[in-house]
Design a protein that fits this description.
Blueprint: H1 11-22, H2 30-39, H3 41-75
Helix pairs in contact: 1-2, 1-3, 2-3
């Protein structure tokens, strides 16, 4: 959603947003995500961004943990 506002989304764009929101979600099934995408699309976008940010944080933590373990093996 770059040039148009989120409220101007067509049905396919709403469904795409809902699919992104529901993918890998423990909270939203597709139908619930579609309702969110239709009524409060900005919130759906926000939740998707937050989930992506948390995924990045967890990936960084996993990398740091692997480096720590490798360093600990070298010391032992």
């Amino acid at each position: 959603m770059t040039t148009r506002s989120l409220s101007d989304m067509n049905e396919q764009e709403q469904r795409d947003l809902a699919r992104r929101l529901a993918d890998d979600s423990e909270v939203f099934d597709f139908e619930t995500a579609l309702e969110v995408a239709r009524h409060i699309p900005a919130e759906a976008e926000k939740r998707i961004r937050e989930r992506e940010e948390w995924a990045d944080i967890f990936a960084e933590l996993a990398d740091a943990r692997a480096k720590f373990r490798a360093a600990a093996r070298e010391i032992a």
